Amino acid sequence: MRILVTGAAGYIGGRMVEVLCEQDWVEKVIGLDITEPTRKFDKFHFIQKDIREPVEELLKIEKIDTVIHAAYVVTPHHNKSMMEDINKRGTRNVLTAVSKAGVKQLMVTSSTMAYGFYPDNDMPLTEESPLRGNDDFIYPKNKKEIEGLMQDFISGHPEINVTILRPCFVLGPKINNPFSRHLRKKFVLMPWKTLPFQYVHEDDLINVMLLLIEKGIGGIYNVTGDGTITYPEMIKSLGNIHIPIPWPFIYHINNLAWFLRLSFLSEFPSAAMRLMVNPWLASSEKLKKTTGYRFKYNTKEAFADFVESVS
After folding, report:
1. pLDDT tens digits, one per residue of 144-158
2. pTM for the full model?
């Protein structure tokens, strides 16, 4: 296969490039990103490019048969317009190029966040659950909207094998995002009442992506580790102190810190905290039944691996 990976310097894209270059069935990997990756591989060729720039000719010249679209602005940013432009226009650009360049297979990394954080969510969420990504938080909002674009694309291009993955929060030794940094603070401010949380280990997500690409398995799949872990358990295992605060107070305190850019207090808007207080657990039964994949880590084991890496 000749594979192009967008977001090749990112967390998931970077790991995917690494493992693809180890496979005998992969001839070449092209990586796109605005930042150059720190690691180099024999089969890997990096091109510095904004995902919103034209890529159709590149796909044709390199004879790309498979595209993995992992480019996405993950970290919350005060410039919402910029985030939405990269996420949505970048995806439209990739879809247009894929449709015109003869690409046979497309994988897009979505998220269980596309379901949104609501008190009346299905328990558990399945691939048939409605996508209601919260409109006041850019990450789930854009994931929901991009999946709408994907459905239109799938309907218009039945000749292309499309796979959409919806992982829950990804965790592992290499994770470093606002959420993981918040949990590592000595004093961790949290809503008074939180619900159990769900993780998937980065190795399991990468293994699933690799399996589906190699076997050419299309469809939509949640990717979630078994079981849950509570916030008090997480904070205690990191050796930190849990500070529960009533929801109305922490919502306004956090929003003020976000507005004033007090990153030592908060690196995300309060809308993101709804994932802590509303049910948001998804099932991977469809993936298991379709592929037979056996997860290496459950939720607590994934978190334990993260704790070991930062302790």
Report:
1. 999 999 999 999 999
2. 0.95
* Domains of the chain by start residue, with CATH: 2-171+199-225+281-295 (3.40.50.720)
Show the 3-state SS of the chain.
Answer: CEEEEECCCCHHHHHHHHHHCCCCCCCEEEEEECCCCCCCCCCEEEEECCCCCCCHHHHHHCCCCEEEECCCCCCCCCCHHHHHHHHHHHHHHHHHHHHHCCCCEEEEECCHHHHCCCCCCCCCECCCCCCCCCCCCHHHHHHHHHHHHHHHHHHHCCCCEEEEEEECEEECCCCCCHHHHHHCCCEEEEECCCCCECEEEHHHHHHHHHHHHHHCCCEEEEECCCCCECHHHHHHHCCCEEEEECHHHHHHHHHHHHHCCCCCCCCCCHHHHHHHHCCCCECCHHHHHHHCCCCCCCHHHHHHHHHHHHC
